[in-house]
Amino acid sequence: MSAAEQRAFAHADAHADDHLRRLCDQLRQPTVSATGDGLRAAAGRLREWLQRLGFDARLLGEGSHPLVAGARRTVPGAPTVLLYGHYDVQPPGERALWSGAPFEPRIADGRVYARGAADNKGQHVAQLLALETVLACEGELPCNVVVVLDGEEEIGSPHLAATVGRHRELLAADVVVVADGPGHPDGRVRIIAGCRGCLSFELSVTTARRDLHSGNWGGVAPNAAWELVRALAALRGADGALTVPGLEPDPAHVGPLRSAARTLPVDLDAVRSDSGIARLDAPAARGFHERLIAWPALSVNVLAAGPCDPAAAGAAIPAHASARCDLRLVPGQEPEQALAALRRRLAEVAPEVTLRPTGGAMAPAASPVDSPLLARLEAAVARGQGAAPLVEPLVGGSLPLATWQRQLGCPAYIVTYADHDCATHAPDENITLDAFRRGIRSGIATLFAFGEAAA
């Protein structure tokens, strides 16, 4: 560790209380992309923050979901690292399930509880504070830096790729570091070289002008709920395998992932206990990590037919039924091709069912795990965390990593600053004070690590 890095670590420790206050200020601002609540005001403040740090900072895109982007290129010959995060959050959901107000940070038991604490404000604020700390100590950054803060990640980043494509010169970088996601249950930070893609869609069917009396019409009128269930059953077999021609994983892409998956640690008893699941989903023969990184997965998120209020449900045949679904894609699969395969399958087995894409689709992505850039990042995170990270080839969730590979031609790696039990997207979302502080230190070490690459 260099003397400059040691100075920055000491400065961050001395300002820990102020850093926590700054995080809480960000958490108090609702920034729900599903509704647009608070996004433009928050984006303006983030742009001002970057401008104070000497960045050429702008709001890109139109409407209430701007992309906050800034560049500081003041170190000739040094590489450029792009730090990506998102300032939008999920809706808080049912308020009664929270221990306090979702947008009023509550500090208890060494954790900060608030919507966005882990996903993603606690993590991208740590990156911004790392920049601020190094500048305060050294007056200059050790490498060139681009910051991109997305206002649409929680709705699939539908405009990110086009916006990045229009501003390649401003955003050009050698490597992208995404601070996002939960750490491993054993306490280690994870560095992840890729992610599955995601295609969100809705299936719907209407069989009559109105709901019909089940006594007068039962056995005569088609039941929308049965028609929808039959369509869903045609997409996945009883053994758990997808039955959609065209969605078979390409062995050339997923073969190495399946091999790597077998080496990743997992405590299945702890997984079952923590989640409350009695067993893993079918097919039973697939390993835990293999399921998450080497196989596509079709999920039914919401299933609806008839009145939503059970008290209003009578002996009726529902005339309309719908299902919100998502399909996670593995490397070698593209959202457009997957959508076409689903349409062909439904046209064959359930032509009366309508498929409508919802939200933005994300392609899967995989960056090299043998890159010198990843080696530098791994060493930096180890210094910041005080322990070696766990390096994984892919994560089961979806992030817009493919955008950076395809628009900027550079690798992208995820670093998880949050805790494994951070309750992302759930009530009482949180981040520990220790994880937040170690995230700042890891951000500092990352800047110096890429600065050393210039030498």
From TrEMBL:
SUPFAM superfamilies in alphabetical order: Zn-dependent exopeptidases (SSF53187)
Ranges for domain Peptidase M20 dimerisation: 204-352
Gene3D superfamilies assigned: 3.30.70.360, Zn peptidases
Keywords for the protein's UniProt record, in alphabetical order: Hydrolase, Metal-binding, Protease
PANTHER family hit by this protein: BETA-ALA-HIS DIPEPTIDASE, DI- AND TRIPEPTIDASE DUG2-RELATED
Record protein name field: M20/M25/M40 family metallo-hydrolase
Protein source organism: Conexibacter stalactiti
Lineage: Bacteria, Bacillati, Actinomycetota, Thermoleophilia, Solirubrobacterales
